[in-house]
Structure to design on (138 residues):
C-alpha cells in the first residue's frame, strides 16, 4: 500500500497539480487585491462612490450605522455586497484564465503547424542504411 502511494505521488500529474494549486492560491491573492484595491474603486467612482463591500441586509431589522457595527452587535446579516465582490473576482479570474488558455492554444497551434510544415529529417542511421543498400545494388 505504501509503495503504491509513493508511485502515485511520484507521478508527474500529481506534482503538476500540486504546483497548480500553489500558483492558484497565490494568484487568488493577486486577483483579490486587484478587485479590492483597483477595480472596485473605479466601479464605485463610475456608479457614484458606492462600495459594494458595505452593502448588507439586516435580518433583525435593527438600525446600524455600518456593517462593522452590525457585525459587532451579532445581528444576522445577508452581506450581498461581499457576494457582488466575489462575483466580480470570479469574472476577472475566469477572464484571465480564458486569455491564458487562448494564448497557450494559439502557441500550440503555431508549433503544430511549424512541425507539419518542416520536412521530416531522415535519421542518420536510416540514411546510412540506404547508402549501404544502394552500394550493395551496384
Amino acid at each position: 500500500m505504501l509503495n503504491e502511494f509513493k508511485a502515485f505521488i511520484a507521478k508527474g500529474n500529481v506534482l503538476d497539480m500540486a504546483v497548480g494549486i500553489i500558483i492558484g492560491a497565490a494568484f487568488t491573492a493577486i486577483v483579490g487585491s486587484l478587485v479590492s484595491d483597483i477595480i472596485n474603486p473605479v466601479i464605485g467612482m463610475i456608479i457614484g462612490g458606492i462600495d459594494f463591500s458595505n452593502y448588507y441586509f439586516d435580518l433583525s431589522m435593527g438600525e446600524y450605522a455600518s456593517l462593522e457595527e452590525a457585525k459587532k452587535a451579532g445581528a444576522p446579516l445577508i452581506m450581498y455586497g461581499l457576494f457582488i465582490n466575489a462575483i466580480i473576482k470570479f469574472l476577472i479570474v475566469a477572464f484571465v484564465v480564458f486569455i491564458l488558455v487562448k494564448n497557450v492554444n494559439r502557441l500550440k497551434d503555431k508549433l503544430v503547424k511549424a512541425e507539419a510544415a518542416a520536412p521530416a529529417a531522415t535519421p542518420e542511421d536510416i540514411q546510412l542504411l540506404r547508402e549501404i543498400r544502394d552500394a550493395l545494388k551496384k
